[in-house]
Write a structure and sequence with these properties.
alpha+beta, 10 helices, 23 strands, globular, single chain
Length: 539
């Protein structure tokens, strides 16, 4: 039976009255729910005889027979109203009992279809447990969420210390990321970042009055709005977090693109992100208390940042001149500080010892090697100007455990977006950067340069690279997805921020158009990928 255009009709085959106890899940429905759980992106629906073929971006195709359950075409008319008849324990469509029981106790994959339809935007699935599943689609994904910030008295945001009170409204009308179309809360907002704070387009940190889940991310008070002024593709940070997911870091900051308004003035496209902090949903470690000054308790947990600005409350330089800062605890006890300094110094001494490659006595005694391998691969692949143990690197030391590269951060000046590299290696896609970085204030080597003397470390980098390579090759497709999402929003962004405008000290020339910027990013990434693939195999 062909699809009906009038979606106020109830499901075919459901005229049987009260629900039967042994209602059987129709064929194909579990696959549909599984596709939603896998976050498949809906492309289109096509009627082919007595079946409907559902196609998804990436190649998945589901064929649903009309004799199994109906999928309605609502591209030209309003969908039917879905209501629950509590007296009958059934779902109603357009005022008619459907025969589908209400099953709140069942997971969606085990429940039944109440009403399935598609329109010009996406595919919708009402499930008998009361949930409505809306598929992601390219049409929806172009309608990125908006963030509206209102400061009290329209007060300006002047610095990185003072929170300006106000309210924030996060709108996601298509429920692309959220469970509700709009969320409003009281908050404070201040500036954030180091060099990025000096750019015309300002990055901000938001602190809600109460914890809340925003854009589908776990509930918290603290959030970031990354401006990406120096990254004219607007997506390098998001792409880097995809690399983080591929590598399997202990935490990957969740991010998505939004459009921001400050006191009703349009600010452009930002990356809405989780703030890096210790919490159950982010850097999930137990921080050492002031009483943890002896024995195993003294060994953790600690959360560090490598940052040459040295602007935290407790900072020091290691014996190899790596600029370390305590993020948590912000002010350790003197015993804890001495222990941590000693641990890093012992680690660095081991890199120069005759036993440096010994897994029990050498550097591997002090670090989680796998996390350092993953860190190296991402930083080298993206040729991150800041990825050479001087900025934006985050390390944890949990109780009784080793140093771990816990998460990534700050990738707006990567993948060819910075011209500040030393002349001998240049800013192109060739040459090692992280492995060979040897500034004058080091002892002539760095952690990774020394670890690469160990055949076991080289072998693990090569093995891990080959394990990751198939997924690393998918990044250009992921870039295309993100660019598609920004197709309209990027135009509005560059009406405010000229895409041809110089970006100061970054020394990265404009490519003249958004399309050219994206083309350059993909070309750099692919060339860097192939260059590294060849070079790592030769080590």
């Amino acid at each position: 039976m062909p699809l009906v255009a009038a979606c106020l009709l109830f499901l075919a085959g459901c005229e049987k009255g009260p629900a039967e106890k042994e209602y059987v899940q129709p064929e194909g429905f579990a696959s549909l729910v599984k596709a939603h759980e896998a976050k498949e992106i809906f492309d289109c629906a096509q009627v082919q005889g007595d079946k409907v073929v559902l196609s998804f971006i990436g190649g998945l195709r589901l064929e649903i027979l009309n004799t199994s359950f109906r999928i309605y075409d609502c591209t030209g008319v309003a969908p039917a109203e879905v209501l629950l008849s509590e007296s009958d324990g059934e779902w109603m469509l357009g005022g008619h009992l459907s025969g589908v029981p209400y099953t709140p106790q069942l997971a969606s994959a085990d429940a039944f279809p109440v009403y399935v339809y598609y329109d010009s935007l996406t595919l919708y699935v009402y499930v008998s447990n009361g949930k409505m599943l809306k598929f992601r689609s390219m049409a929806l994904m172009q309608r990125i969420p908006s963030v509206r910030i209102y400061t009290e008295g329209q007060a300006p945001i002047l610095d990185k210390k003072t929170y300006v009170p106000g309210t924030i409204t996060v709108s996601d009308p298509e429920l692309l990321y959220s469970d509700v179309p709009e969320f409003t809360a009281e908050m404070g907002i201040r500036g954030r970042g180091n060099s990025t704070w000096d750019f015309p387009k300002k990055p901000w940190k938001v602190k809600l009055k109460e914890k809340a889940s925003l854009l589908g991310m776990p509930a918290d008070k603290e959030w970031c709005l990354l401006a990406n002024y120096a990254d004219r593709t607007l997506i390098r940070n998001i792409v880097a977090m995809r690399l983080s997911e591929i590598c399997g870091f202990s935490w990957t900051p969740r991010m998505c693109s939004v459009e921001v308004y400050l006191n009703d003035k349009y600010q452009g496209v930002y990356t809405f992100s989780e703030h890096k902090k210790v919490s159950s949903g982010r850097v999930n470690i137990d921080i050492a208390s002031a009483a943890d000054n002896s024995g195993d308790a003294m060994t953790g947990g600690y959360y560090f940042e490598i940052e040459q600005q040295q602007d935290a409350e407790t900072c020091w330089w290691t014996s190899m001149s790596v600029p370390m800062m305590f993020k948590e605890p912000k002010i350790p006890t003197q015993v804890q500080l001495s222990y941590v300094k000693g641990y890093f110094n012992d680690f660095e001494k081991s890199l120069y010892s005759s036993d440096f490659a010994d897994p029990e006595k050498g550097y591997a005694k002090f670090i989680d090697v796998e996390s350092f391998v993953n860190y190296y691969i991402v930083q080298e692949l993206t040729k991150n100007i800041d990825g050479n143990l001087r900025k934006s690197t985050f390390i944890t030391k949990e109780r009784g455990k080793k140093l771990e590269m816990y998460h990534l951060w700050d990738f707006d000046l990567t993948m060819g977006a910075c011209g500040c590299f030393p002349w001998e290696i240049g800013g192109g896609p060739e040459k090692f950067w992280v492995r060979d970085y040897t500034p004058a204030n080091y002892r002539g080597d760095n952690w990774f340069g020394l670890m690469f003397r160990d055949p076991a470390f080289v072998k693990r980098v090569q093995e891990r690279w080959n394990e990751l390579l198939p997924q690393l090759r998918t990044i250009p497709d992921y870039i295309d997805e993100q660019v598609f999402i920004l197709e309209e929003a990027q135009k509005r962004n560059f009406e405010v921020w000229n895409i041809k405008e110089a970006v100061g000290w970054v020394m990265f020339p404009s490519r003249g158009s958004y399309e050219n910027e994206v083309g350059y990013l993909k070309d750099f990434y692919l060339k860097r990928l192939e260059w590294l693939d060849g070079q790592l195999a030769l080590l």
